[in-house]
Each structure stands twice: as C-alpha cells, then as structure tokens.
Amino acid sequence: MNCYSVKLNGNIAVDDTILVKDVEATAGSKMLEGFKPLFSAEAVTRLENKGYKVAGKTHVGEFGLDLVGEFSHYAEKEDTLKGAAASLVAEGEVKAALGVDMNGSCRRAAALSGVDFLKATYGTVSRYGVISCAASGEQMGVYAKNAQGVKEIIEVIAGEDDKDGTCLKNQTYDYTIGDVQGKKVCIVKELLQKCDDAVKANVTAYADKLRKCGVEVEEISFDIFDTANTAWQILMTAETCNNVSRYDGVKYGHRAKQYKNIDELYVNSRTEGFNFLTKAVIMYGSDVLSKNRYADCYDKSLKVRRVIADKFAELMANYDAVLTPVCSKTAYERYDIKDAFVKVFEESVFTSLSNLIGTPAFVSGGVQLLGKAFGEATLLSLANAVERMGE
Amino acid sequence: MNYELVIGLETHVELSTESKIFCSCGGHSAANEPNDCVCPACSGMPGMLPVMNKRVIELAVTAGLMLNCEISRYTTFDKKNYYYPDLPCAYQITQLNHPICTNGCVTLKTSLGARDIRIKQIHMEEDAGKLVHGGKFSFVDFNRTSVPLIEIVTQPDFRSAEEVVTYLNKLKSMFRSGGISECEEGAMRCDVNISVRPEGSSEFGVRTEIKNMSSFDAIERAIKYEAQRHMDALEFDTEELVQETRRFDDVSGKTFAMRNKETEADYRYFPDANLMPIIIDDEWLEQIKANKPAAVDEKAEDYRAAGISDKEIDMLISNHKIAKLLDDIVAMGCNAKDGAAWILTDCAGILRKDGKTLGDLTITAEKLFAVTNMVDKGDINRNAGKKILIAVIEDDVDPVEYCKAQGLDKKVDTAMLGTVIDKVIAENTQSVTDYKNGKVKAIQALFGACMKELKGAGDPAAIKTLLEEKLK
Ligand SMILES: [Zn+2]
After folding, report:
1. Is residue A273 part of a domain?
2. Does the distance separating the beta carbons of B90 and A246 come in below 8 Å?
3. Residues A132, B271: C-beta atoms closer than 8 Å
4. What is the ipTM of this complex?
5. Contacts of residue B210, Cβ cutoff 8 Å, sequence gap at least 6
6. What is the pTM of this model?
7. What is the pLDDT of residues A320-345, one digit of tens each?
C-alpha cells in the first residue's frame, strides 16, 4: 500500500489535510492540485521545534469526508480499506501521525488498523494550518501505537495559539496516565445493536479486560447517538459546503481548461475538481442552509447540539468513560462512491457525538472510549491499563 | 395628489485601523501596487483562520456611542455566501444575528425642522477586493479585502433628499473628528431604500433599493430621480413599480434595474464557527467610553451638515445666544442655512449701521421667524422682509402687523402691476426716452420707481420682465 502523497524523511506522518510549508497539500482533492502552502500548521511547527521530523504527507479521502480515505484523488484503490496514516503507524514505519478528526475517518482507520487515536477536547490543538471543513467540530488528533505514544505527542501540540481564535486560552492540560482502579465505564446498548457479532465480541472482550483492571463496567440505554449524528451531519455538511466554496479555480489549485466566462470557470473547475461524495456534501450542506430549510435543519441542529451536550454531561456525572464501537464491522470492502454519502452517514453514528459537542474520544484496541471535556487523562489511563495487560 | 418620500439608508464606512479586520495586513491605503497588502488569510488560502482585530470592535462601539446606540454585550459573526472573484473565500464575514450596536438615534436639523432618525443597527464586516478590467482579462486586487467596515442601518425615517445629505454630512464630520474613519472618497458607500406614498398614508409604497453610491451629490440626484419615477408611476400609471434593486447611472442621471441574478440570491447566512462570540464587559465598555476622543462639538457638525460655512460656524459657536436664536428658528421650521444668513448678514448689517454688534441683538425667535416665514411662504419678497426686520430691530414692532400696515403683503397681481408700470412710464418720460435710445441702464430708474410705488411688495423678477415688455 502506497501511503504517502509526498514522501519526506522523518518519524511523524502528517495527513494531507494538514499543511507543511512548501510541501504540496491537496486534502486528497484534485481541486487543490499543485497547492503549496506558505506556512506549516502550528502543530507541525511545535513538533519540529521539539526535534520531530515530518516523514511525509499521507493520503486522505477527499477533504476527509469518506470512511477511511478510500476516495482520495491520488491514492491507488485498495481492496481492503484501512487508512494511510494508521497503516504506517501499525507497521511501525513512523512513531506517530497527525490527522484531522472531522467526520470519523481517523478514528475508523485507527480501529481497523489496530492503533490508538486521540481526538482531544475541542479547542485543545490549534487548527492553524488545517485545511478546514467543519470548523465547529473538527480537531486535529494523534495516531500512535499505544496510549503512551499518544501522550508524548499530544503534550507537545496541545495549548493556546493566537493564530486560532477557537483554540482555548489559559487552559492547562494534564495527560498524566494514572491508576484506573474503581473507575466506572458504561456500554451503550443502542450502539452495540448497530454492529456485527465480531465487533460486539470485541467490545465485550475489552469490557472484560477493563474489569480485570478493577474498572466497573455496566451496560446502559442511552439513545441519543442517532440524533447527535443527524445534527452533526447537518452542521458538518453546511460548514464543509461553505469552506470548500473558496476553491473556485481562480486563485490556486485546479482550473478547467474550457470556459467562456467567470461562471463557466467556476462551474467547470468545480465539476472537474470535486469527487461525487464532496458534491453530495455540497448539495446537502447548501440545502440545509437555504432560506426555506435553515430554521428546521441548521438552526435546529444548533439547538440539538446544546441539548445533547447537557445530556452527555449528565451521563458523565456518573461515569468516567463510555465504551463504544467505532465501526459497525471489523473490515470495510471497496464500494462505489455513489453509495458513499449514505454509508458514511450511517457509520458516523459512533463518532459524530464527540464532534458535535467537542468532547474527547480515544480509539484503542478497535474500540472507542468517550470522555467528558478535558477528561483525556482518564481515557489514556484506561487504554493504557488494558494495553499493559498484554505485556 | 401630494406624496411623501420614505427613505432608509445603509451606509458602509471604512474604519481607520492600522490593520485589516481579521489579519495583520496593513490597510489598503498603505498599498502602492495591487496585492501589496495581502496575506494567506485575506486572500482565502486554506489553513488560515480569522483572528479578530480588537480595535475594530472599539471603533464600532465608539461609533455606536456617538449615535446613541445600545451596545451589545454579546456579539457574533456570520458568513454570507456568494461567488465573486473579488471575494476570495466566496463568503463575506459579517454580522446578522447579534450586531454590535442597536436602537440608536441621531437628530437632524433641516428646513423641515429638527427630526430624529432612528438607527436600527450598526454591524461590523469585512470589505471585498476589487476587480480591474483590462483588455481580454479582468484582474483581481485583494488590497481592500478584509478591510474593516461598519454598516449603519437606519429605519425608514428620512423624508427628503436634503435630510439624507444632511445625515451623511453629519456622519462624515462626526467620524472624522472621532477618529473612526477618514471618510475619504469611496470610504463611505450607501445603499438607499426608497418608496413613495400619498401624504398622510401610514402604509409603505413599493420599495426599491439603489445600490452602492459614494458621492453625496450622486445620492441626492439618484433620490430625486427615483422619487419622481415613483410619483409618476403612481400619478400617471407610467409603469408598474416592483420591489427591486437598481443602480444609478451618474452620466444619464437615471436609475436602472439590476439583473435579477444579482439581487435574488439566497446568501445562506450562518454563524462563523471560527470566530468565538465576543463579550463586551463593563470594564471594557468603560475603557472605550473613556478613550472616546474629546467630546466632538455636535453643534458644529450640525451646522456644517446644514451647509453653513466654517466662518459662520465660528461666529455661531462663539456666541451662544446667537446660536440659540438660530436653533430656535430652525426648530420652528426655518432652513438652517437661510436662518444663518438672516442673523449673521441681515441682522448684523442693521445693527452695524447703529454702531452695534450681534451681541446687542434682542430680537425674539418668534419675531425673527415670523419674518423669515413670510418670505419662505412667498407672502412677501426678501427686500420687504428686510424692511420689516429693520423695524423690528429698531422699534420692536410686530412683524405681521407692520407688514399689513405698510401694505407689504399686498398680493400684487399682473393687472395691478401693469397699472403701476403704466403709471411709472407715463410719469418718467425722460428715462423712457433714454432707454429707447439705447441707454440700457435707464431701466434701473424706472424699476426703482415701480418698487417705490409698490412699497417693496411684488416679485422683483416679474416686475422687471413686465417692465421690459412694456418698453418694447
Ligand atoms: Zn491579510
């Protein structure tokens, strides 16, 4: 599997949705063909300042909208879908990787490849230098072999940045891995029902391991994930539609060869530059923002976001983490891009909630631990405890 | 039928900040060449995020304080979507849901009297770039992109083009002295919403919007043209009025409907998640209030906006009593510029003859207004008005009674004028002969004799015309 869109020499892989100065950045889209940024993402700069080096830019699906990176304009089509950066970490080619967690693709890739991935609390990592799609919920995350590896990287990249107004100010972060004895974790029944037997067995096995570490695990009913998913898909498509509208063929990236006037320049460039999934997202996002639909779709989703944040906080008053699946199955096969919009929508039921309300999510051992805002240390500690059992 | 004009204004004002609204590029006035003041943020490159320029908020709040607005303590930005090559992100960052200032008010003094114009809101936004058309291609200049603007939206409270121009002059002078904007050519741009309705009606007529005008002269002409177009449509059914956006053509002096495509867009506004809500707490607000430039002399602005010269303004400002006299007669309905002339030229001249100055003026506002009003209404001419003014100042007479007693208000019809002129021609044969022999100046003596006969009443121009006719 060819994982790099641009291969450099270093120990940290960087997804192609993240900028590295002077290195072509396309977010997997023909629309950004040839675009070389004038600056590096803040997270990349912080890592370089600590002596890490960028190993290369890794393939992503166009704007990170697909399952695990299967619809990049540049990568060869694979039969089994895994995700480029996650594969490199799994194979030990790189120490860690950076990815943008926007609609679940990084978390799904980590789960399928058997590596760890942390999406921290919204506002933890600067989004400066991220090819942004859904500003209100996207967050740069870290892939590594294990919780210790993730901790090492997140400690470098977390923290305020004046260049990003959404990056929290005066916030301190603590990623200390500690004891998990007596912690309480719940499993959500409704999510398990959406998975095949292999995934269910995986979640159950993980729960057993947690119990062996002294963690109390219980199954509960908490039926808000579908609502959270719908709300996030509405917000995410709307914001993506808006953010990719700047790719018009005028300033950089792909420009159609045939056009007679400015409208044709826009239409032809965008028709040629975007893939079917991006176009579907643009259509959907444009629709939910239109005058007739705004109140019922977009504005309602903003309200749902607040309600779900409250409900999740209520639940988290009683638990330290929620244990959930990340994907409905343990492996994805190749499929037609025309089916992508619906497929991704359905699979995102496991990941959308954390994007919607900005809470942290940690993938490890093919399962996911959801935490309360700034509860990353607990998630790292739980995963670390399970990982240490195998040693 | 009499019609009333109803006008609302949206005015964009470029703020005088050192850097753009969301990046550290200098303002475009610092630029020499196209795209001199441009960075990845204001040219819409991926990966850059808008970072709020605090100074913009402070200037917008200061403008709000000057226009007596409520200052929002919680204010947010929204994105407005449309495609145009001068808009690098294909959206403009503006404020829709929580503008920075609301519910203001500004008092205008014009010939219609002192009137309050309500300010609906002031919001902050970024400017777009500029297209330069040349030959086969068009070029994009992003220097102006993301330059901070405030947009001041009024309620439909204007009733004349004069009021609109007075308002704009007032904003300009206020913002200049307040350090908010230099208000240079093109730094103040207006969209005018205009409709016409029968006088006394409380319903609004069909509204049209004339977009993007920057010269006050053009704005005045556009309003007058558009008002006439509406009135013709209502009165004579010349066309059916439709709600639409129009553009004013400076050369022809006419307005034209813009293509629907440019006007019927759904801008799909939604909150900008890159910019966190801004909270203006008491401490910050007090700080802005304290740093507000030394209280601007509102009075001077009012006078300037009314078209009074700087020299006259100095005289008014330095004499509180005189200024109050002017304000009083303006409040009664006198045009400010005319009122200033009556006081500073006519009254001062009369006093000077007696070796007195304006400080000795004792005329009441009521009496002065009675004089100016008779002239304005066309009851008497200005000369007669001046005659009355002398009597009022010297003997404190009642202007209206004096006017009647002296027969100055006599309505002079053409027949009566003819009789008087015939009489003068018959009594001044020498002057008539001189005139007929080519001594054109001789007509002055005849004119003077007519005026004397009419005791100052009558329209001088009409007298002169009739006199010339009769001498042919
Ligand atoms: Zn800039």
Report:
1. no
2. yes
3. no
4. 0.94
5. B191, B192, B194, B222, B223, B226, B245, B246, B247, B248, B255
6. 0.80
7. 999 999 999 999 999 999 999 999 99
